[in-house]
Design a protein that fits this description.
36% of the residues lie in helices and 29% in strands. It is α/β, with parallel strands linked by helices. The longest helix is centred in the C-terminal third of the chain and has 15 residues, at 176-190. It is globular. The model has no long low-confidence stretch (mean pLDDT 94). Bound molecules: adenosine-5'-diphosphate (ADP) (2 copies). One adenosine-5'-diphosphate binds at residues 42, 46-47, 169. It holds the Pfam family ABC_tran. One of its GO terms (molecular function) is transmembrane transporter activity. Residues 4-235 form the ABC transporter domain. InterPro entries: AAA+_ATPase, ABC_transporter-like_ATP-bd, ABC_transporter-like_CS, ABC_transpr_LolD-like, MacB-like_ATP-bd, P-loop_NTPase.
């Protein structure tokens, strides 16, 4: 089963009254258990594609399927429900809540889902353990390094056990050694037997070479797709 499918996706933004075409006919199928990196120059449509994949943006044309659900068939409530339960998001600047501890940040999506804090603490702790941060559970983001904050964000992305994890420049704000460790952790999310798909936008060739597959975007179109070494060579 394809975890994610884009079929002829076009996306335009309006700049004043002028449409700007960010995606120009993107078709891609991403299966479960794959870690895919998305490369391309600035402005080539990488973030837009990630937003479309995560149902944050509805494309101007074309279809998007998540686990064979056609997003066009869903109303706003169903879309936000699907986003919350089936997609985990990881951002360059972590997007943690500064007043909450590490475990509370991990628990936030479950708490928003109406689960009581007591029962979710254990789940959050298990995920912090998984990302190697169990000993920082009671620390607030301000007391953590960048790499540690991104580990918290990765744990948070998993708390709803999503089939898809989308990461926008997850190592863009980290030194390269910390970044490499996190890339291994991200790839492991796809390789742990969960059949999860991980898609990450990156400027790092190193990140691309560590993934299973690379997609190159140029001017909103797929200009390369396949073995990372081959795709990186085109970029
Ligand atoms: P990338 O992530 O590869 O840098 P983006 O997806 O952010 O590319 O942007 C693709 C194109 O769409 C660029 O020309 C960008 O300026 C434009 N764009 C992105 N977001 C918006 C927006 N909210 N409003 C108008 N134009 C946008
Ligand atoms: P990146 O290049 O790392 O993808 P950007 O800095 O281009 O990110 O964009 C950051 C945010 O600003 C994105 O959410 C994108 O949608 C928005 N954005 C990008 N370009 C434009 C633009 N020309 N006008 C309005 N919003 C934009």
């Amino acid at each position: 089963m394809a975890a994610l499918r884009l079929d002829g996706v076009v996306h335009d933004y309006l700049r004043g009254r002028q449409p700007v075409r960010a995606l120009n006919g993107v078709s891609l199928t991403i299966g479960g258990g794959q870690c895919v990196s998305v490369l391309g120059p600035s402005g080539s449509g990488k973030s837009t594609m990630l937003h479309v994949m995560g149902a944050l943006d509805i494309p101007s044309e074309g279809r998007v399927f998540i686990d064979d659900t056609d997003l066009a068939a869903l109303d706003d409530d169903a879309l936000s429900d699907l986003r919350r339960r089936r997609v985990g998001f990881i951002f360059q600047f972590f997007n943690l809540l500064p007043a909450l501890t590490a475990w509370e940040n991990v628990a936030v999506p479950r708490l928003l889902d109406g689960v009581k804090p007591g029962s979710v603490r254990e789940e959050a702790m298990a995920l912090l353990e998984r990302v190697g941060l169990a000993d920082r559970a009671e620390h607030r983001p301000g007391e953590l390094s960048g790499g540690q904050m991104q580990r918290v964000a990765i744990a948070r992305s998993l708390i709803m056990d999503p089939g898809i994890v989308l990461a926008d420049e997850p190592t863009g704000n980290l030194d390269s050694r910390t970044g490499d460790e996190l890339l291994d952790l991200l790839a492991s999310l796809a390789h742990d037997g969960s059949e999860r798909s991980v898609v990450m936008v990156t400027h790092s060739m190193d990140a691309a070479l560590r993934s299973d597959r690379a997609v190159l975007l140029t001017d909103g179109e797929v200009a390369g797709d396949g073995v990372p070494g081959d795709v990186v060579a085109k970029f």
